[in-house]
Amino acid sequence: MANYTVADIQALRERTGAGMLDVKKALDEADGDLDKAVDILRVKGLKGVTKREGRSASEGLVLASIQDVDGGQVGTLLELNSETDFVAKNEKFIALAEKVLGAVVAAGAADLDAALAADLDGKPVKDVVDENAGVLGEKIVLRRVARVEAPVVTEYLHRTNKDLPAQVGVLVGSDAKAGEVARDVAMHIAAYSPKYLAREDVPADIVANEERVAEETAKGEGKPEAALPKIVQGRMNGFFKENVLVEQAFAKDPKTTVGKVVENAGGAVVSFARFRVGA
């Protein structure tokens, strides 16, 4: 007879998040020793990591943290992915995301490579994520990390499904005066997903390609050669209004722009970051 009880099964499931069958097999193999059973589940899980590498992890959550520093604030935004929304709302997955965020913040990581290498309980974040993937039985991926530094950093996390953790996360870096409207701007960013803060932030190669496409489209429509420059300029203005934050029509008042709202507050937005799970 196995040397463990129903209470042991429940305790091991709570510690690891593993399924009932896996827990029973681990306890059988460990002869009822809970610590050994945890190690067995971890080892078996890690062996399965490579099998899961080709699978898609497009569910998950976004988390943010804002810290006070000399001269202002620093915000950190991360996206942790799972394969299913079932795991995305699992308490152990959420707890893992919070621990990873803490480690990333403590390390001052500003990009994914630095985040994966950050120390978490004496191990790199990547190893801890892989271990938890083994226990949860799904591919778990720290997909991306962003860091925003400014006098004031404002966060906005949005749930697209009330039963799931936040799926959209935004950080807005601004000066103190713009901080008064920064949350509204962050909510706008969540909804309208701008790619750039200002025109000058759009890479030159993207601008050149958009101009080329606009010109070729106009020629294909049979527009006169003399009219092409103005047509291209008009279509580029449309591109900027769609993709540049300060030129977008403001969500709460489409008659004005985000740039005008910030300007009327007497301040400036200096940077932003936006993640949507799986996008």
Automatic annotation (TrEMBL):
One family name in Pfam for this protein: EF_TS
Source organism superkingdom: Bacteria
Name recorded for this polypeptide: Elongation factor Ts
UniProt key word Protein biosynthesis: yes
Compartments in which it is found: Cytoplasm
Molecular function, one GO term: translation elongation factor activity
Alphabetical list of InterPro entries matching this protein: EF-Ts_dimer_sf (IPR036402), Transl_elong_EFTs/EF1B (IPR001816), Transl_elong_EFTs/EF1B_dimer (IPR014039), Transl_elong_Ts_CS (IPR018101), UBA-like_sf (IPR009060)
Residue ranges of domain Translation elongation factor EFTs/EF1B dimerisation in the record: 75-278
KW Cytoplasm (keyword) present: yes
Gene, per the UniProt record: tsf
Highest classification ranks of the organism: Bacteria, Bacillati, Actinomycetota, Actinomycetes, Micrococcales
Purpose: Associates with the EF-Tu.GDP complex and induces the exchange of GDP to GTP. It remains bound to the aminoacyl-tRNA.EF-Tu.GTP complex up to the GTP hydrolysis stage on the ribosome.
Signal peptide range in chain numbering: none
Family statement: Belongs to the EF-Ts family.
Keywords, in A-Z order: Cytoplasm, Elongation factor, Protein biosynthesis
HAMAP family according to UniProt: EF_Ts
